[in-house]
Design goal:
Radius of gyration: 27 Å
Number of helices: 6
Helix content: 25-40%
Shape: elongated
Structural class: alpha+beta
Distance between the termini: 43 Å
Order of helices and strands: HHEEEEEEEEEEEHEEEEEHHEEH
Strand order of the largest sheet: 7-2-3-6-5-4-8
Largest sheet: 7 strands, antiparallel
Amino acid sequence: MASLGTMQTRLSLILASHMTTANITTLINRVHQEEVEAYDWYRLKVTTALAVKAPKSAGTVAITQDTAVVTGTGTAFAAGDVGSFVRIGTEPTAIEILSFASATSITLKSNWVGTTQTAATYSLFPLYYSLPADAQEVMTIKRLRDVIEKTTYELDQIDPSRETTGAEAVYWAPFDHDTTANAPRIELWPVASAAQLYTMQYKKGHTDLVASTDRPLMQAAVVEAKSLYDAALTIYARSGDQRWFQLAKGFKEDYARELEEAKMQDVGKFGAIHQIHDSIGQVVPYDYYVSHDA
């Protein structure tokens, strides 16, 4: 598969001096993003494990009304707890943790408006889980069964304070991106009562091709043809030269042909096999054994 450098060289030769290398690179990356997001490429589906953490509740905590510092006794707070949520005493609302000071001290994102608490029980748990940085969207999550996708709004209707806990998630919902790696996040419901591993399949998303050796996520011919089509239209719009308009039509045909071939190869090499052959070589659907003796 051609690299970014190869595509840059090819487009530069065809476009001559009508477009700079920097503009060509920008165009290639824009086209690459469009093609990655436009189709459910089998080759971009990744299966990985999603580790769900157990809640923390060891020890007790104290907090003063209208302050944000939680002081623990016998607790084991950690830096990884930042971004998780804590529910104190009988208060149903959980508050996000802003910062970590020590195993016995954390600071909340907002002040505690309830009554002052001393030696109170608590539950500290992650509500959102960050996906790999290259993830564009989640396809499936499962453990003993499929976890069903919902929206955050739907989860809010079911359990607005997220008080329900369970050994296994029933629903998941997409959330926003985290602030560190800008990775997408998801929420699982009910809140995990124990550590669990889930199998997750996600679709890889576009990342800019920067180094000359970087390779696109699908066939480079698709990206090249679409980039040439877009470039020819851009040059035609600038110059009014009908020759570039005619070239654009040819590049568009090349793009359509390369895209169709790429999609066929994608299904053939990375997708599910949708047909089987019987003993005499006839193509039959999956329900063959429903109507035939084995």
